[in-house]
Queue: 2 jobs
Job 1
Amino acid sequence: MTVEDLQELAEQEQARQAKFSHRLMYCSAAGCVSCGSLNIRDMLKKALQEKNLADKVEVIGTGCMGLCGEGPLVKVLPEGTLYQRVDEAAAKRIVDEHLVQGPIVQDNVVDITHPFFAAQFKIVLENCGRIDAERIEEYIAVNGYEALARVVTEMQPGEVIEEVRKSGIRGRGGAGYPTGLKWGIVRKVPSDTKYVVCNADEGDPGAFMDRSVLEGDPHRILEGMAIAGYAIGAQQGYIYVRAEYPLAIERLRLAIKQAERVGLLGNRILESQFNFRIDLRIGAGAFVCGEETALIRSIEGRRGRPRPRPPYPSERGLWGMPTLLNNVETFANIAPIIRNGSSWFNAIGIPKSTGTKVFALAGKIRNTGLIEVPMGIPLRKIVFDMGGGTPEGTEFKAAQTGGPSGGCIPAEHLDVPVDYESLNAVGSIMGSGGMIVMDSTSQMVDVAKYFMDFCKDESCGKCIPCRVGTVHIHGLLEKIAAGKATTDDLGLLEELCVMVKETSLCGLGQSAPNPVLSTLRFFRHEYEELLKQPETFVPSGNGNDPTTH
Amino acid sequence: MKLKVATVWLGGCSGCHMSLLDLDERLIDLADRITLVYSPIADVKDFPRDVDVTLVEGAVANVEHEEFAHLIRRNSRFVVSFGDCAVTGNVTAMRNGLDTEEVLKRSYVELADLTPRIPRDYPTIAELMPQARPLHEFITVDAFIHGCPPTADQIWTAVSELLEGKKPALSHVFLRYG
Amino acid sequence: MAIVTLTIDGEQLSAKDDESLLQVARQHKIDIPTLCHLDGISDVGACRLCLVEVEGWTKLAPACTTRPLEGMVVHTSTDRLKKYRRMIVGLLASEGNHQCAVCTVNNHCELQNLAYDVGLLYVRVPYLYPDKHIDASHESFILDHNRCVLCTRCVRVCHEVEGAHVWDIAGRGIDCEIISDLNQPWGSSESCTSCGKCVLVCPTGALVKKGESVAEMEKHTEFLKYIVTARRKGEWISVDTDEE
Amino acid sequence: MPTPTAPTPHPSGDNRFKLLDRAITKHQSRGDALIEVLHAAQGIFGFLENDLLIYIARALKLPLSRVYGVATFYHFFTLKPKGKHTFVLCTGTACYVKGASKIQHAAEECCKVKFGQTTSDNKISLISARCVGSCGLAPVAVLDDHVAGKMTPESAIARLKTWQEQPDEVTT
């Protein structure tokens, strides 16, 4: 395939789509499927048949449309009307009323001028809910692989890295390491064999950003990885994806096959000298495999236990070779950066945190779902304007970002801008994008206990502080929650947390105490209310009872 | 004024007390300087109040031990874990992986020479706790004398320092488990 | 290989840059406690006892897998490090069932010595008293999981030196356990050559010879240097080993 | 691509081994494909029996202890057969905040086993998942591969009861 062929393919697809008067997009992501969206698909098709519209209207399953709490969701294109809680009757009405007669079905329509939608800025999710994830043509029709084409035909690897560096994008997996810098390091390491690895082992409980991208727009990841491969000089990429995401795996497999078939992956991509292949590796349920050295071991078919760094994977990674590791959301940003230029990306967000971030908004909040917002947006805007605040009759207490590695942000810091540095300053982290809202009914000691329970279960067991320390931190939290702990126990808890944080081998252990430390920082009184004083010597003059044995 | 000293025997083999007796002629010296207000080797029924120093041998292994530990804490200025069982649980804690019922059966039935029977119907016999645990997990402990058993020299150093009104720093010199 | 100058505990030293900080420190009689490290097998950086402070670094660095750099200023026994080491040994003690008094390696035990070195007066966290078993099925040796500290020395020596890979680790987190072959009785292992290297390198009484009574068994780790002289010296700080 | 040695049929005559061999051949019997092969094996056999692990170890030329170590490291792999019905409760953060622990207690009470275990009559396995990614529907459970949102302790017990009351199938 040549660049011209790619353009032609895009035009063909655009022409094909133009033949339809409407495109009915039903959400086929896990959330909506579980409330019956597949049944709704059948209903829509049946209704269309009844009205003889089957040839004029296309019914397409898409990735996540965001408003997961109100599924099943159906979108009507080209108008962009979004319907929520579509049941069988509503499906029939959408066809009968909206498509045939014109007026939209008011009972189910979603107000997309609501801040939940209006305040979003979509780069990563731009195609989610807009295209059929199972057809490469649809991705190509919306400028897909255009960036890759430009890269392999017009740009030198150094220029690609420079463009990524200038965009200011930082790793979306949590730590926020500048992506361009990382690419530059791997490029400089001399080696014939290098690898690109995409971390799609989204393990943060309560986060499903990456899954939505993988399910809704898999080609975007392939394109980002191929660009990375070209830039650093790699010919092989791996996507490490969780086994818990069967649909994402299926779509990725399909996407890889399609891309290979049309020559966008494989040898001599777009008739250039660049060869790049991508293979899938399926995780098997280990949160620690999100840590890069553990992930590499897991790809190598071994126990996912981290090893000390340095050497960093950029120097010695997969099978000892220089390896570039980025997460899904990072790769998803690459094609738009190349396509639109680094200065376009740079202008989004704030200077030190550019671009957007996807969050999975959940917990005690009215509008749950997936949102993509510009970096630097105040937390208050996310929670109250977009999320609609906490349920009736309760008050906002805290928002947890960064999952088990992160921290909670209390009401007094609601105005914190959501960017890497500001979140660190209030004791949390950007993390991969989980955002759980807690209200006045949430007990913070319990919350800390929940996260610690998670961390102790997910500890790989290699280093002592994490393997044993997390068990004891959890035990102390249980003791405190049960009202059996003394002030001495609280002191020990804090010391243990600091020790585990500073001495653990990998990021899991080093960040495991964060939920405890951050709840202690902002909600210490909730701990102290549960404590008693340790018993001490009582001189006989003071005690009334003769305590004898 | 003589220091009021108590020694207590919880879940242990009494080896630590034997080691205490190994102070030999130093015991005479000691007798001039302390009053032994409570001990398994003294006929005192009730644990007194305002004890200056209490040495506790053995792990906390039954409900009586636990209750007693709290009493010791309230009534003693200075509590010392005396020997490895009090410090770590040690041999007393080796049964912790087993069900208490199995432990009782083994001790009172399988190994009995006469009248194999679990002595359950005596209210004076305290109920075994699921696990024998070190003293400091129940009460605040002020000092530790290690060893199984601690040597007479260790004990002598510790007691001497206590008599001088110092918190014994012996552990650094005499730190030895087992 | 290059020679670098660095400072450890206030002393200016020269070192080869392909050695580990631990090797350099030991050459200069600076004692850093270790447990998972053993001269002659690869390093895994797991026990965290050899962590040191390096000026200008935000994180503590394991001496066994960190290479000396020009101008590096290292502190090996600050109050913070001492406290952490004591806590780590305490965690280990709480994790197993270590009754020194009735252990065949009493007084010849590295864990015991570590407890003394770090001044472990008592264990502040509650003992876990796990329910672990003893495998006495091998004709010459005994594996007592109660005393295992999961340092993986046995795993590494068996794989790297003996080449048998009898041992590995099963499970995860606090449930990790050393296993032979398919988690089967050691005596029924077909891959075990009964060479006994694992027993000799075990720092505690987890792997012992049969028939030794309390406090009789001494471990011998020095044999390794006779076996492995053929290997290049720098290889020992390869951290990406084939362990497990 | 022809493999150097065609795998000999499994002596048990169990045809499922043919499927497994295919998966192994697909990865050229490479040791680093262990996790992929274990996935395939579990998909074919349902769980990873010792015999199966030995077979895989031999085919990939890996030490037995490594294969066992890997199989027990990852929670996705199970070395014991699952119950006839599976009740997978999501214990992700969103579900936790919305009260998954109450459902957990109710289910454990109802089945008399803990999560991670199977009832003694092999009818029901209680499994906890870290996040099934349907946070908007929290609390979520996956009942026999079917996602059920907005669960309550009552709805959980109701489902478990129907499973418990199903008559035993006649096994041949």
Note: Chain D touches chain A at residues 30-36, 38-39, 66, 69-70, 73-77, 91-98, 129-138, 140, 146-149 (CB under 8 Å).
Job 2
Amino acid sequence: MSGLLTQEFTVNMGPHHPSTHGVCRLILTMDGEKVVKIEPVIGYLHRSMEKICENRTYAQCVPLMDRFEYVTAMSAEYVFVNAVEKLAEIEVPERAEYLRVIMLELNRIASHLIFYGATAMDIGALTPFIYGLRERELIIDLFEMTCGQRLTYNYMKIGGVSHDIPKEFIPKCREAVKIIGEKMSDYEGLLNENPIWLARTKNVGVLPTDLAKAYGVSGPVLRASGVKYDIRKNDPYSIYDRFDFNIPCRHNGDSYDRYLLRLDEIRESLKIIIQALDGLPEGDTLKKVNPFNFKPPAGEMYSRIENSRGEMGVYIISDGTTKPLRVKMRGSSYNHVQVLPKVATGVLIADLVATFATLDVIMPEVDR
Amino acid sequence: MILATAELIGIFQWLHGFLVDLGLKEPWLSIVVYCLLSVTVFGVLCLIALFLVWWERKIAGHIQQRFGPMRNGWHGWYQTVMDALKLLQKEDIRVDTRDKAVFFWAPVICFVAAFMAYIVIPFGKGLIVADLNIGILYIIAITTFTVISLLMAGWGSHNKYALLGGMRSAAQVVSYEVPMVASILTVIIFSGSLSMVDISNSQQGNLIFNWFIFRPPFGIIAFITYIIAATAEANRTPFDIPEAEQELVAGFNIEYSGMKFAMFFLAEFVNMFTVSAIATTLFLGGWNGPLLPSWLWFLIKTLLVVLLLMVFRWTFPRLRVDQLMEFAWKFLVPVTFANLILAGWMKYAGWYW
Amino acid sequence: MKSVFNGLKNLIKGMAITSKHLGRHAVTVQYPEQRDNIPERSRGIVVLLSDKETGELNCTSCMLCMRACPTAAIRIEAPRGEDKKRHLQSFVVNHTICCFCGLCEQACNFTAIKMATMYEFSSLDKSVLVWDMNKLQEMGRDVPYEPKKKPAAKPRPKVEEKEKAADDKEEKPDTTETKPDEKTDPKNENQTPDQPDEEDKKGEA
Amino acid sequence: MTGDELKEYIVGHLEGKLKPLESGKHDPLFEVQESDLLTVAQVLRDDENLKFDFLSCISGVDTGERFEIVYSLASLANNLRIDLKVVLSREKPEVESVQEIWPAANWYEREIWELYGFDIKNHGNLTRFLLADDWDQGYPMRKDWDAPDFVRFPELER
């Protein structure tokens, strides 16, 4: 084929391409089907959240955090609230901590279910998407029952959680956990051993350990590359040190490993939820903080948690007034988009889509 | 050429007599009769295509534990009719930089080619427009026209996604033509004829065990390879890379809208019905079956094959383009040719028949 | 050869899973005719609640909700009258910029504002979604609620008020709203909350 | 290593190059001179007992009086965390790029260049990506940034 004269051409993939998960735009230079160069263009969802935070009181920032990462809004709220609580040294009631863990883990499962569906959809299987959303709906119903909203919860408050759970929450939650546990065999049966799925994901988009570390890749993507690092275990926040769960870890760093790892994480999260439900104490759920006059002492800190995509952090500087001086949000997708050109250059366009899907990027986290 | 039909013979005789009474003479008589037949087949096929669109949506809905269309009529039975009407009213958006003639003719060719195959497909005992003695060859030739139209659509749209889709479809259809023909040839070895009617007739009797699919092992292997190749031929998942909506957005038909899009869309479903009808005729005994009228048997069998293709689509992920080609050339072609040669040798040696 | 059969087996396994669902009942509902149950706490549109007996608004124009709102969707005008009390003149909720966070409901001490479970208020005209006081009151007429604390119809000693509030809270542990430092009871007009900061909302965009 | 040990170790190891700040609440926070940044970063990454090979985040800060840039670092191998702060002059804020040490810095530095206007030396790819391509309204994250009319909503200013 060396004698064949070919010409590279540019394809604009996005910002409203079906498989760029929101409004990411990739400028691809292609040689036929082969991607020669990838240039991610972000910023289509830029809402200058960090600037808005500087003009809001701490309590008013929390609903904004929902918009930072709307697939796992609980964790986005939690990371901010957690940082403020650490700054102001507020003791959170025990029950509230348990509720937070339950909500965070439920939300992690919901996010992984979306990942499962969306990835399958990007690789061409349409049905898993609906199956994933079907079980996610159970979780979303639990959230709505508790805090009244399905997507942007505003559940975490500085000093606790906004609502105690209703009576029927615990039986419904146990039922949802059971159903999801049962449906896992369906999910795995559909894709895990499917030869087409294996062909499409095995050894596709391999992210070596060194590259992953260097580019600040975190969460399931990092663990699939062989680094057993989970902030829930390594730097425990909230009450995660009380629960017994494993950190799944895989070593190939390809799309298939990233996919399997997330299914494993669903199982671990189910374990945590059951333990948290068993140990749920009675008591208050909110330590009273005046939202209008809440002034954490001056200071600064970087607080990080492990959300479903990786390390989510917030660098917060308080100058002792009612409004934060600086809120810097760190979303793991930012690094995942950044590493995409390193992983996916030189592959076919279909592999690019598979890689992008298993990196599990969500754009509001990137653009903020 | 057979005009007389088992069930509908009365109507045709009446029609024939009516036209003769009008004073029509050959060749005009034949022309008018064939025109009427074609229009009938066309109408029936349009209905079938509309039905298939609805059915696919229902199957998809039920597989995914949804309802699917429910609004228009009982379980939305005329939903697709309304969709077609809607598409008719839509603005026909044309890209300024398109290649005008190519852009216009692509959907037309696609549509026509999809329907032309039905000239030789026997819907029932004697229910055939024209029983060509090279029937199956004619079908293979005519269905390949589709690829030209897809390539034209890809080129004429002046869109890189569309072009990629068109190129993919050309590569795919041409590659899968080879194993498809090889598995069809296995059947021709069994039957000894290219005529669709002869093939159907040779599967008559003995309940269902005369069907070519039950001639182990060659029949079943040929059937499986044919179904795989046919799925690719009809551009359906897991071989739907020409329109791969997650990669190429919609592939070749990305720039088409309104009725032109509808023509591609209907042609796709007609193609699906075509490959299923061929599978029925070649492997599943055609119209043969006990008790029920022949056309009903044919329809039931064909729809079952269509159902299989639909379950494929709603279960499997999509193959990558290079894997698709590798699968065709490195796996399907050797298997089908080995199957063909062995079957021919067996027949020559007279071990079976 | 083995891998071919294994692959085929797994393909069929996948198809068995999807076919299994073919006969099952749908989990979705046909939306306009059938509806899912909306939980009590669901946060829909913002309404103003009225006293069940008198039909008067519960609002005491303390402006807490207006201060709590992160998007400035609530606009209250309540100038002081001759009796030095605030008189509610207009209460406008702009639902086009409301982010349904529920902070106003949590800030209110008199169960005057609530996010009702109603939804479906889309319209072609944005101005339809800016609701004034009458509309808000009308929408909130039939919304069931449990009063946190009775609006002080007539001045009472301060201690009593606080005890009452404490009692109410014990009865209903759900109400986890915060008690602001500012004395917002109407009888303490002299210590009404500060006007919201006239902050330059530069980062609004 | 606990926080205090870590603080002692780093201060002892990088004598005079960094000084711990009290304002850091949860994890150790150090102030580094801009000129020392690269050496300090190199040591932090390569020292066997530290191995800060994971750059979590780079935050630009405008306190109103001065500009700062904060590097949040984590060590995956030794499970440690620190923050590094560099104070920049308000007149001519510029800082060396740390891309050589942590490639992840690329986009974070681009973002800071775009939103704060700090000059990142030796970055190589300082192009707009968060703001509009034709943005010419200054650096929006600075405290003294005056919002242009088109981003103001008078009805929101109560």
Note: The first strand of chain A starts at residue 9 and ends at 13.
